[in-house]
Design goal:
The complex is a heterodimer of chains A (110) and B (120). Chain A has no helices and ten strands. Chain A is mainly β. In chain A, the strands form two sheets. In chain A, strands 1, 3, 4, 5, 8, 9 and 10 form a seven-stranded mixed beta sheet that branches. In chain A, a hairpin with a 2-residue loop joins strand 6 (64-69) and strand 7. Chain B is an all-beta fold. Chain B contains no helices and eleven strands. Chain B has strands at 3-7, 10-12, 18-25, 34-39, 45-51, 58-60, 68-73, 78-83, 92-99, 107-110, 114-118. In chain B, the strands form two sheets. In chain B, strands 2, 4, 5, 6, 9, 10 and 11 form a seven-stranded mixed beta sheet that branches. Classes of the chains: A mainly beta (110), B mainly beta (120). At the A-B interface, strand 3, strand 4, strand 8 and strand 9 of A face strand 5 and strand 10 of B.
Chain lengths: 110, 120
Amino acid sequence: QSALTQPASVSGSPGQSITISCTGTNSDAGGYKYVSWFQQHPGKAPKLIIYDVTNRSSGVSNRFSASKSGNTASLTISGLQAEDEADYYCSSYTSSSTLVFGGGTKVTVL
Amino acid sequence: EVQLVESGGGLVQPGGSLRLSCVASGFTFSSYWMNWVRQAPGKGLEWVANIQQDGSEKYYVDSVKGRFTISRDNAKNSLYLQMNNLRAEDTAVYYCTREMYYYISGMGYWGQGTLVTVSS
């Protein structure tokens, strides 16, 4: 049950686009369509922004998009805004019928 | 409105036990997979356990197998986590979460969390 691999930090200027990667194996992210992305602001509970690899949760800005290629899922934030500064986590279903999170990525808006 | 309210956290000594509860409202509780997720202070999210709609299937992260038990009471719209033989590394905020849809699809709803501190 190893965690999915995410970069520790990603930064960008307002208006730019950034991409966060989430790398797993054929036994988790690469093998299933059940990949999710969460946004967490300090002191708050996480919020689901993407489910089933590419689907935006209700009310989530269309500046957030996601995809998957092989064992790596990706979250792209377009038109970066100050409010996007937060921690982001990916999650996947696994072949052991468990779930696993990535280590998290801190997004900084410069 | 979907609401998940956790309770039962607190300070416990190593080796001790604690039972967390989560009361759900605003949806048909018996129709959804439910999860417990934890976050140690300053650390990332860790999935702990989940349970199928009727309680017949339960899964755990390796680090809590044999020590933690997830259960639910659909008549009371409640989810539980019995934690035994607690260790310092179990110190975390514990969140109760609900899947977005009736299948494992993404944890769309989260409670506010309850803090468990394991320390002597």
